[in-house]
Design a protein that fits this description.
Its EC number is 1.8.4.11. One of its GO terms (molecular function) is peptide-methionine (S)-S-oxide reductase activity. The chain is of the alpha+beta class. It is built from five helices and eight strands, in the order E-H-E-H-E-H-E-E-E-H-E-E-H. The chain has a single domain, classed as Peptide Methionine Sulfoxide Reductase, Chain A. The chain is 22% helix and 19% strand. The longest helix is centred in the C-terminal third of the chain and has 20 residues, at 147-166. The chain starts with 46 loop residues before the first strand and ends in a 21-residue tail after the last helix.
């Protein structure tokens, strides 16, 4: 996931984005760990969430380990190019973020608990990067599926900003937006660190706790 080439650190405008394609790129049929169909519909009573917090390999592993998270998947969102490839996203010319979409049971884990995991497991003050991973695809983002999620995300950002300032960290750069189209990443990205336990993971937090959703 490292790149020594210079990448744009501003989002490419729609008229300059790569054209993409009408046909979805191939991805895995089933989740490597649960064997559930990766494109399962959301079961009745469950909800969706989507987060961007750096390289999606490590991010997906964080969320699939949580009790109450039923299904996870890696993909691209927040850009302009339909059905992008990983190579295209890496150029910075699609405006997409590397994201993890998940389906969870709110009776077992609340959305605020997911937000707490989100804030504590990356540095949301770094703009278009996470550590050594530099580029627009590594920006911090919360993509909400309901008005309630939007309000909870915005409230959590305010609370966590206060905690970060007390710990002498900078301003949060996380974008909070209604969930855009989600494009599945290629097969080998899905549950990558389950298939490659020693693989690269660049995700790491600030060490500052977030005082929301404490009951998981």
């Amino acid at each position: 996931m490292f790149s020594l080439t210079r990448k744009p650190l501003d989002l490419v405008p729609p008229d300059q984005a790569l054209p993409g394609r009408a046909t979805p790129i191939p991805t895995a049929e089933r989740h490597f760990l649960s064997d559930l169909p990766l494109k399962s519909p959301v079961p009745e009573g469950m909800e969706q969430a989507m987060f961007g917090m750096g390289c999606f390999w490590g991010v997906e592993r964080i969320f699939w380990q949580l009790p109450g998270v039923w299904l996870t998947m890696a993909g691209y969102a927040g850009g302009h190019t339909p059905n992008p490839t990983y190579q295209e996203v890496c150029t910075g010319r699609t405006a997409h973020n590397e994201v993890v979409r998940l389906i969870f049971d709110p009776a077992k884990i609340g959305y605020e608990s997911l937000l707490r995991v989100f804030w504590e497991n990356h540095d949301p003050t770094q703009g278009m990067r996470q550590g050594n991973d530099v580029g627009t695809q590594y920006r911090s983002g919360i993509y909400t599926y309901t008005e309630t999620q939007q309000k909870q995300a915005e409230a959590s950002r305010a609370v966590y900003q206060h905690r970060l300032m007390r710990a002498r960290h900078g301003a949060i750069t996380t974008e909070i937006l209604p969930a855009p189209a989600f494009w599945f990443a290629e097969d080998y990205h899905q549950q990558y660190l389950a298939k490659n336990p020693g693989g690269y993971c660049g995700v790491g937090g600030t060490g500052v706790s977030c005082p929301i959703g404490l009951a998981v």
